[in-house]
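Tutorial handout. Part one gives the primary structure; part two gives the three-dimensional structure as tokens.
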Amino acid sequence: MHSGGNGNKHIQHEILVCGGSNTIINGLCAWLLMRGGGNLQWSGDHSFVTDVLATAFLLPFIVGCIVIPVQRSKLKNGTLQPINLGPSSFMQSVADRFPTGTAKSAFLFGLIGLLIIAPLTLAGLYLVDVHTISPEYYAIFKGVWAGLMASILVVPMVLIALRENTPTSTTATH
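Part two.
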């Protein structure tokens, strides 16, 4: 069981890479798709709610489908060692409750995004009285929001993949 410096450094690296890449990709995609369009609002054809809900499910699902198999592959070929942050770690306790199968875990991450992160995000926007938002500001918001979501969720994803005695096959379903 590995819980020390190299495990923490690896997790920090994954947070930076996953968070940074998702910030850039999501912000750039939002800007490219929405530039020159009208302001986004709560409802109607230009609703940011639909985009937040879709992204909150799809981003964690897709990231989980990528991160977990890549980390397991590195574990299998000896590039990485198992990581366990110990019983006092909140993230470890979250990861320990997930199934070992990539598809099931990725789906659960998508549900966490849709059922927890999206409502909290929308509640926050409502509480700070956001009624409309320009495409440019939405692209900045979406990039930062997606990067933060990926940065947080990649930690349990890595811990799921690098559990002690976990099957390293990417097709495990239990």
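Part three, for discussion. The two ends are 22 Å apart (CA to CA). The helical segments are 5-34, 48-76, 90-96, 102-127, 135-161.
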